[in-house]
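User: Watch each token:
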Amino acid sequence: MAALKQAPKRVNLAFQGGGSHGAFTWGVADRLLREPRIEIEGICGASAGAMNAVVLGSGYAKGGREGAREALAAFWGRIGDAGARSPIQPSWLDQWLGTNRMDFSPTYFAFDMISRLFSPYELNPSNINPLRDVVAASVDFQAVRDQCSLKLFVCATNVRTGKIKVFENKELSVEAVLASACLPFMFQTVWVEGEPYWDGGYMGNPALYPLIYNCQSQDVLLVQINPLTREEVPVHARDILDRVNEISFNSSLMREMRAVHFVSKLVEAGRLPADEFRDLFIHIVESEEVLKKLGASTKLNATKPFLQHLFDTGSLAAERWLDANFDALGHRSSVDVGSIFL
């Protein structure tokens, strides 16, 4: 007698922000969408992760899994087209070295220096944001608000209070997504319903609690694009600043993961009631051997070959994760949260 077909396992996804490195998340999401054994319940994202989440949700609302894959591919195609028009490009020497960095790009260095001396209000008084048109062309927000069966959560940082703001499906708009991706040295503050917002990565990159409180699945799969650890100690000014930014954008995630670990240990020891405090199963898809080699400048590298490289890397990382850890879903964490985040 043939075995009964198993129902797909439900998971929640957590998408980090990281500029162009979000194309890695695109690759991971594409592979997961092709996996019939997995069903996505909720997605929380910040910055580029928020864009991936909302684009995926829009495509899913209109065309299911294939619609989501097509929407993500179209979105990153538009990012590549915008990148081709950007003055910030890898130099011929960067291209020859094949690092995908912009260590020798005069336009990148000029932008980096000027952005430290002048604010976006001075450099861009008309508040032109090329991401606005890309997001608007890529997302049907009415479908996201009214038709999307996925639970979407977009993180932004309130400039006045310093608190995190999580926009849910019914609240999502172009402005909400731009707020989540508003790096204050690059873009003017984004206002949503009278409140000012900066990049969500400052307070939640991404936040996990919306998935804990609003979703039934115990499994949270983090797509990690910001390295947590580096063996080498930076000594050059640019490398020091890059590492400071990495630590800052990982700090909120580190705190949440410590809290998750603490609660899980108390539930396991019987000191908290299991019917009131859920034991979360944490999973991570990453490719640190590739992403650690990329400096901060590559987050502004939106050339199509680089985006395709990140997509391929993400897709392969997801394939490897599925092969090694699919059976853990619904039963246990596939990573040692304590050793990684404590």
Summary: Residues 60 and 66 are 7 Å apart (CA to CA). The chain has a mean pLDDT of 92. The two ends are 48 Å apart (CA to CA).
